[in-house]
Amino acid sequence: MLLVENTANNLGVTISGDYHDFEGLYEALHMVVSDDEYLSAARIRVLGVCYDIRHALMGNRDYTFVPNGLTHEIKKHQKVVAADKNVYLKINVLWPEILFVLFALNTFSLTYGKELTKERYAFDLLTNAKLIWDPTYTEVRKFQAAIAAGIKNTVTEHAYPRILNTMNRRSAGVEGYFTQYIDLLNHNFIELSAEKRLKNISIVAKRIVEKNNEYRQLEDDIRESARIHACSVDEIQLNLTYPEKMEW
Q: What is the DSSP track for 170-184?
């Protein structure tokens, strides 16, 4: 079972699950992300989470032990000798990053569904037999549900429905998104105190979706830099420094 939980210092979330949870999620995310050029920047951000998942599967990330339900009484009754805890793999993702991934997966799930079913309208996807039990689609939606549960358990009762409504607007998507803005949000979020981070989660979600003046100005600056250097806008990187070790 995938779990998404706020970290101790409100810097991001810890995603945890057993080997099969991570393996299934890794494969599903790779399957659902489109290679459409207008989604290339968003695709890279989702694959960034895949990178950490892959390293967790290779044993290069943290882990924890969770109860598996095998109590002393059950083991005695069944006459088995077994551990009473399972190993769960763990990765950490910054709050702005995971909020963007949550948002981007709406677009990728819709694109995947349309390609699979050949349906044009989102409403028809919900009842299409090819999609409704498709393992890739349901795995991604399960991941989104786990992230949503993590948000709900972190923010206030009033903030959660606002975030939910903001990130699920029909007109909002990540086509052509300048994801350098997520780098900026990550950097600024790290600079906040633990208390301010908690209060800013809903603000960050709103900024990601609504593309405010700060986003528009950054977009203009990146376009100009790409013109000057005769390169793609995706090749322009912001001059930001991240701490070598983060206090999650």
A: TT---TT--THHHHH
CA nearest neighbour of 154 among 212, 205, 88: 205
Rounded Cα gap, residues 13 and 66, in angstroms: 18
Residues 6+ apart with CB under 8 A from 14: 3, 4, 5, 6, 7, 90, 91, 92, 248
Residue segments in the chain with a per-residue pLDDT below the cut of 70:
122-123
Amino acid identity at 39? L
pLDDT computed for residue 86 by the predictor: 86
Residue 246 is predicted with a pLDDT of: 93
Nearest to 186 by CA among 91, 97, 92: 97
Report the predicted TM-score, pTM, of the whole model to 2 decimal places: 0.93
pLDDT at 7: 98
Spatial separation of the C-alpha atoms in residues 43 and 32, rounded to whole Å: 10
Shortest CA distance to 205 belongs to which of 239, 238, 237, 172? 172
